[in-house]
Amino acid sequence: MTQPQLETLLWSREGNVATVTINRPKVLNALNAQVLRELNLILDNRELTAGLRALVLTGAGDKAFVAGADIAAMREMTTQEALQFGRLGQDTTRRLESAPYLTIARVQGFALGGGCELAMACDIIVASEKALFGQPEVDLGLIPGFGGTQRLARRVGLPLAMEVLCAGRKLNGREAWQLGLISSVATAEELDATLAQILKNVGRAAPQAVAETKKLARASLEIPLEHGLAAEVTAFASCFTGQEAKEGLSAFLEKRKANFSN
User: 62: which DSSP letter?
Assistant: First the structure.
């Protein structure tokens, strides 16, 4: 297996779970074009990600998941360069959404600007109570460029999204959980144990069923209900031609744990 050359990311894999760590702690893991390109190298590498059940995305250190995009780099951008940077960020987030395995953001600190956008592209967000989410781009004379204006309202509703996007409101981990921005919240000490339990639950589920469920749930945000229901029932019926349903149903009736190892 050929691993891509990485300078801004750390990659590790244990069984069917991989962890990608954005490793720029001196600048609070700020996103620049190199970080995004390296993340795409991983997401596009089918050999590297073969058989994955979950990919965990996190940031190095205790202070930040990702504190935002690299402001020093952005200050020097032309309009055309900014367009390319925004498209690169949006391409990256779409890859996280369309990956055939679950993507999980582990947020232990700042998740601001591009960091909040990167987390929102993941299927599950697990955060510490000390985490801080926000979209402060308007304070810099900018707007979100990696999908923040589109995804935030879908998660929390338009009124709250407008306050976060336009009035600088920031949400700690507990608030973000209560308002539906994130999936789970824990104390800083319990964050990894909470993540481990989620990974355990994912690991015992049927991988193809999880992948198909993710695809259908993601699509439900963008297509009419009747189209989504038609796609769901077709996918439901197709489950009965595969080995996962045979194993899962048999295990239930035989009062044993299903074995979905792949």
Answer: S
pLDDT tens track for 84-142:
999 999 999 999 999 999 999 999 999 999 999 999 999 999 999 999 999 999 999 99
Q: What is the DSSP letter of 173?
A: H
User: Could you tell me the two tokens for 13?
Assistant: 């894999």
Strand partners, 103: 55
Write out pLDDT tens, residues 192-232.
999 999 999 999 999 999 999 999 999 999 999 999 999 99
Torsion-angle region of residue 129: left (phi > 0), alpha (psi -120 to 50) or beta?
alpha
DSSP 8-state secondary structure symbol assigned to residue 134: E
Q: Could you tell me if 93 and 146 are in contact, meaning their C-beta atoms sit under 8 angstroms apart?
A: yes
DSSP class of residue 181 equals S
Residues taking part in catalysis? 117, 137
Q: pTM, whole model, 2 decimals?
A: 0.95
Count other C-beta atoms under 10 Å from residue 194's C-beta.
18
Delineate the domains of the chain, giving CATH numbers in brackets: 9-203 (3.90.226.10), 207-253 (1.10.12)
Cα 8 to Cα 210: distance, rounded to the nearest angstrom:
30
Distance CA 119, CA 103 (A): 9
